[in-house]
Design brief:
With 296 residues, the protein is of the alpha/beta class. It contains eleven helices and 13 strands. The chain is flat, with a radius of gyration of 21 Å. The structure holds iron/sulfur cluster. The site of iron/sulfur cluster has 11 residues, from loops.
């Protein structure tokens, strides 16, 4: 049996250790693997089974097995940081590698007098409290007064704050730092990016070829809007969105219907503005403000 293996960047260095347990006929994917949205379909076509590591299923594909990769951490030390916040009604969220301990954390915090929400979101996520950079549905109808994000960095925590409208704290489960999240710089940056598109008329509407990011119908509807508003527009199919791939294209700016993190995290890498579908609608005066781009 031939086996394919897809690893995120953080695990690629361990490829020998991981592959040696999978038999002698193993092919490793060298493509990007930012999420389960990013399945290597070309490798899947040439193997009997594809092991996709460290993400949870987004789309159902036969012969794909998702292999979890959980990171252990000290619940009591995380809880100790949370006990210092003033809010007592909280919701818990985490990225996938830290989700496995949220239920235990909930029990510990409830034992300390907190009321704790821990809910599973849409079909795009698997575990209670799990969030993705493109999906915060675990916070849908959140009743808590504050949200605790357990994970690295602040990207997901900022997204959670904008999505839920709640106060958000990010607790790093490895070094136990607690950050009080402030979204104002992020929001200012997004309005600035939209303002750079004012008066521009040639728009490239990017559609990701990655199966869990592909939003062709959305792109087609945005193209229609662009044409109705006197712009020139083309839909562009693209895998990894890089500045090198865009450099020869004749557009003044881009609307990215693929992974929202490209617009939010990587916008500085592109010579032209790259905005989200919601931001494009705001540019066209079809929305009163900027909202978070989500993939359901
Ligand atoms: Fe993560 Fe982006 Fe894929 Fe969503 S679309 S799962 S944020 S890589």
């Amino acid at each position: 049996m031939r086996v394919g293996v897809q690893l995120p960047d953080g695990l690629k260095k361990k490829a020998f250790e991981i592959c040696e347990n999978l038999g002698s006929d193993v092919i490793l994917s060298g493509e990007s693997c930012y999420g389960a949205c990013d399945l290597d379909l070309s490798l899947l076509a040439d193997v009997d089974i594809l092991y996709h590591y460290a993400h949870t299923e987004i789309l159902k594909f036969g012969r794909v097995v998702y292999v979890p990769y959980f990171v252990d951490y000290d619940i009591e030390k995380v809880a100790e940081r949370i006990r210092g916040i003033p809010e007592k009604e909280i919701a818990l969220i985490a990225t996938v590698q830290y989700c496995h301990k949220l239920s235990e954390l909930k029990d510990v915090l409830e034992g300390s007098g907190f009321t704790v929400e821990l809910k599973k979101g849409s079909e795009r996520v698997k575990f209670p409290g799990q969030v993705l950079g493109c999906n915060y549905s675990a916070l849908r109808d959140c009743k808590a007064s504050a949200v605790i994000f357990v994970g690295d960095g602040t990207f997901h925590a900022i997204g959670a704050s904008i999505y839920s409208g709640r106060k958000v704290y990010a607790v790093n489960p490895i070094n136990f730092a607690l950050i009080n999240i402030d979204t104002s710089d992020f929001i200012k940056t997004r309005y600035l990016q939209v303002s750079r598109c004012v008066g521009l008329s040639r728009v490239g509407i990017l559609v990701s070829t990655k199966p869990g990011q592909k939003r062709l119908n959305l792109a087609l509807s945005l193209k229609k809007l662009a044409l109705e508003n006197g712009m020139k527009a083309l839909v562009v199919y693209i895998g990894d969105i890089t500045s090198e791939k865009l450099v020869n294209l004749p557009f003044d700016f881009y609307v990215n219907t693929g992974c929202p993190r490209i617009s939010y995290d990587d916008y500085r890498k592109f010579g032209r503005p790259i905005i989200t579908p919601q931001e494009f609608e705001y540019l066209l005066n079809l929305r009163g403000g900027i909202e978070l781009d989500e993939i359901e």
